[in-house]
Amino acid sequence: MFLASSKRWLFFILLFSFGIRFIGLNQIDGPVFDEVFYPKYGLMYLKGEDFYYAHPPLANYLYAFAIWVYSLLPWTGIESLQNIELSSLQPISYRWINALLGSLLCLVIYGISFQLTKNKFYALIATSLVVLDGSLIVDSRIALANTFLVFFGFSGLYFFLRFYIQNGSIHNLVFSGLLMGMAVSIKWSGLGFVLLALMIVILLKNDLQTKTNHLNLKNAVLYTLIIIITYVAIFLPDIFLNSNYGFFEKHQQMLGFHQTMVTTDEHPYCSKWYTWPFMIRPIGYFFESISINQESMVNSFRDIHLFPNPFIYWFSSLSIILMMIQLAINPLIKSIRNQKELMLKKFICLGYLANFLPWVFVERCLFLYHYQTASIFSFLALAWYLSQLLNSNKPQYRSIFVLSAIIILMSFLYWLPIQMGFLIPDYEFYRRMWFNSWI
């Protein structure tokens, strides 16, 4: 009975995810924030033009693919991409691929959550948090590379867990290596997923219930080679098309850019890594003031903020802190006796630290979207505690779950206009800016 019910709930969540990410993709008619770079580079690949880019090239390939697919549709009226400019393209031509992968991310998170616990309640709650988070919604509707990084990284992690926890089938290891290599080929911060895989092998080996010791030296070497070969292979088309520099010269340039150039030209929405869990400095992607009636003193604003769901962020930050404290004191008081629960909490905390702590050592200008990967692990922590409240025999605990769910849903609806770019009166905009740092 519940199996069928859980499938229906997952289908509903997936349908909602597609709706909230695809509706109104053309609402802002033109490039927003760093859309002036990513889709432009994809279009330049299609036109055979040289350019410089400060990250690995996979995101640019994906935007080239998205624009090319869109150009094949008969109603677009695009006869050739050689003479067309980015400003002449409908934004949906390069945004649809973000919306697609951002929508499918919920299935990946469901798969990871269920693999770790075999608990459908927990998996559905974790999936819902990912679907309702404003930061992930916004970057699923705007042509930026962050959604690709999160999707490929967690997909690689999903297949790695299938290999490690289940039957050790080698094709899961191959798929994981390919996807991990693709994540690193979006941005180097994708190495956080690789670091987590290494931590799993070293620190969680005795916690996972595996029938055979299939993570041997041979498979470890194979996995590493797949990641490296994938990364290098993805660079080959770029080296051919942007032939002024070779593989190593490109990497020297990218490293130099991230070490120096960004630091000297700080962005107004830069934020320190330790502010991210508390959502102190969201990012304004787009802002437009429209005067509806000259006689009225009220203007209307159209705004797109990279604006997480505040209560998901605050609740999840408290959850990951609590989970780490539990793990730290567990050797003394043995409060976690269930081996599966212990393994889950170790996995979540290691995943969070592997994707959060490396930013401590980065001196360049950083943004809140760099926290997206780590934030999903904190969502998994929040989902765990919410599922415990839901499954409790005590009515007051279940009441806390209901109250928390209502707060999260109301928060989602309240801040949705500045995530979707709806036209709202200026006073409604300022009502939603609870802190000056949010503007």
Distance between the termini: 48 Å
How many helices? The count is: 17
Radius of gyration, CA atoms, in whole angstroms: 22 Å
Question: Which runs of at least 5 residues are low in confidence (pLDDT < 50)?
Answer: none
Question: How would you write the strand order of the largest sheet?
Answer: 1-2-3
Strand count, sense and barrel status of the largest sheet are: 3 strands, antiparallel
Relative helix content: 55-70%
Protein structure class? mainly alpha
Order of helices and strands: HHHHHHHHHHHEEHHHHHEH
Provide mean pLDDT, rounded: 87
Q: Identify the overall geometry.
A: globular
Oligomer type:
single chain
What percent strand? under 5%
- The overall strand count is 3
What would you note in describing this structure?
The structure is a single chain. With 439 residues, the chain is mostly helical. It has a domain at 2-17 and 34-144 and 265-438. It is built from 17 helices and three strands. The protein has helices at 2-22, 38-47, 58-72, 92-117, 120-132, 134-141, 146-165, 170-184, 191-203, 217-241, 247-264, 310-333, 339-356, 372-390, 395-415, 417-420, 426-432; strands spanning 283-290, 300-306, 423-425. The longest helix has 26 residues, at 92-117. The chain is globular, with a radius of gyration of 22 Å. The model has no long low-confidence stretch (mean pLDDT 87).
